[in-house]
Amino acid sequence: MSENVDFELGNAEYSSTWKTSVASFVSVFFHNYNNIAAALVSAVIWPSVFFPSAAPDLGLLLGISTYVVGYIAGIIGAFIFGQYGDRGGRRNVGAVALATTAVGALGIGLTPSFASIGVTADILLIIFRIIAGMGIGTMVGDGAWVVESAAKSKRRGLWGTTFGIGQSASVTAPALVMFFLLTKYPHVFVFTEGWRILFYIGAAGLVAALIIRYFITETKVFDTLKAEDKIETIPAIKVFKPFWKQIVVLMVVQAASAGAIFELASFTPGFLKSDGLDPVNAFLALGIAAAVGIFIKIGAGHLADATGRRNAMRVGMIAIMIFAIPYLYILSLKPTLPLLIANEIVMYGLASIQIAVVASLFAEQFSSRYRYSGVTISYNFGQLLAGIVTAVIAAAFLSAFHGPTHAWPYIGALMLVLNAIAFIALFFIKETYQHEIVAD
Fold it and tell me: Quick one: pLDDT band at residue 10, thresholds 50, 70, 90?
């Protein structure tokens, strides 16, 4: 073969990059499936199930805030699992993270309503969201796992889109499941018990991903680190000294790349509901848009390999800056279903350019001994920042301005400013697409 895309293809001791990519795709899919499932129900269903005594605007804020709690937990998971990933291996830490997310997902599905056990239900929901969030926070490590597996490839950016493609598919699946439930069953069933089906599916899928992972080997880069005695004792702490600048920049970059997805999955259904529209259309539109996003991410992966990770990221950021306010304006017009679908496709498609590049950009910024810790810590701090900006603050704007009619320009401006800051931040890190990944 003209290009060694599998990292030492002649050595049968290591799984090929495509096999690692399949295992990573399944893991990312079911991790993020549970995350998106929580996002979808947090604004539309959780307010009535777990916060029924709150005023509508406050209930929306409480529901979304409970979802965002998972991103605080993701930071805790990033330190714990990042430490494990850099000391015990990428393959092994992913297995523990999958089991953790499965416990949290199943717990959310089984938590009784406020009407059944009162405030205890709210406490249990938060606990299980924290558990799930800790596991979900490691899914970007699977993206780094694939990039490291393809260490000698000139197409690491394309291989890294496994992470982004898994995310797209995992948005489509729960969105279409919710659309199916709301169109085929009485709303009273979906709003009381039916929504829990999302999390039962998610927990079962995580178990399947865990089984698949058993058959994939560790990367040669990590094995070389062990053989050369280069494993750090506390990488999750030590990573900050040599790579603090990269962590700060990548945190802001992730906030920008994740912000649009949070807005689409969590805020938009609540926005439409508060505007008097049936949120079921938002689920259908999001599912279609995420499916289209898969193809855009593949193209963005090629772009990242041809022009560099930073340039590909900047293309996505500029596009979001241009469309952030028009996207919200269209939502404020109470759009018909075709217009809503078109609006979602454009917004998700533009966000996909950034998401496609996350795995390769992040993984290549850190030396191998710190890679898992650096990637997961940067990513999860960025996730939390995105959640605060695009969920909590946006919902607060909605409340302060008494609905979407007057709040939409300010919410759109949040996305514009976040992407502008991230665009500037990229100037403070180096381009890496022509550098080879080694055991260092």
Answer: very low
